[in-house]
Amino acid sequence: MRSPPRRYDASKRQEKAAQARRRILAAAATLFSDKGIDPVTLAQVATKARVSSASVYAQFRSKAGLLEALIHSILLGQDYQAAAARVDGVDDPAEALRITASMACGVYQREHKELGLIRAAAAYSPALRKIEAGLETVRWDLQKERARLVYRSNPALKAWGLKRVRDVIWMFTGRDFYRMLVLEKGWTPQTYERWLAQSLIQILLNQGG
């Protein structure tokens, strides 16, 4: 009597691929931090991650693709997605702005902790500058619905227009404020987050926070 055919377990293959991806990203982070971006090759990343060069290429296509995936995984990964889920369905504009401040603080804390060495080692890399410009576009797009909620909630903002409201949120939640206040002036991230939320609420909603 013939044995029944084995059922293909796709979940094991997916988990193996996910583990390999995590090793590749971790290896890339270490090499980019140690050597900068431009000198590192995909073959070096593959060797450190204990995978084949073909596997790295198949997943990321290029070093720029690998760098972009690494930065996205750090800045817009699980922590960011969890925060973004909190803001979905929020109809209180003040609460939406508080969550926006929390998301900005979280992004820059992760950036400083996990990308600081890469940024220092590759400050003049064209690939890094291009990816960072793309992330600013992503940040602008992700804030659209929150800006619309704030705009509709305050009749005084009609004179501004929706784009100016988006501009203000985008500017205040940018990296420069975090860098100046937290990294240069020694504010705690918690103090920065409270200040950012209160500032946005006061400016856009004319409330005391």
Distance between the termini: 75 Å
Strand content: under 5%
Unreliable residue runs: none
Structural class: mainly alpha
Account of the protein in words:
- With 209 residues, the chain is an all-alpha fold.
- It has two domains: 11-71, Arc Repressor Mutant, subunit A; 76-205, no CATH class.
- It contains eleven helices and no strands.
- It has helices spanning 10-35, 42-49, 53-60, 63-75, 78-87, 93-121, 126-142, 144-153, 162-172, 175-184, 189-205.
- α6 (93-121) runs antiparallel to α8 (144-153).
- The longest helix has 29 residues, at 93-121.
- The chain is globular, with a radius of gyration of 21 Å.
- It starts with 9 loop residues before the first helix and ends with a helix.
- The model has no long low-confidence stretch (mean pLDDT 90).
Please give a handful of descriptors for the protein shown.
209 residues, mainly alpha, Arc Repressor Mutant, subunit A, 76% helix
Present the secondary structure layout.
Elements: H1 10-35, H2 42-49, H3 53-60, H4 63-75, H5 78-87, H6 93-121, H7 126-142, H8 144-153, H9 162-172, H10 175-184, H11 189-205
Helix pairs in contact: 1-2, 1-4, 1-6, 2-3, 4-7, 5-6, 6-8, 6-11, 8-9
What's the short version?
With 209 residues, this protein is mostly helical.
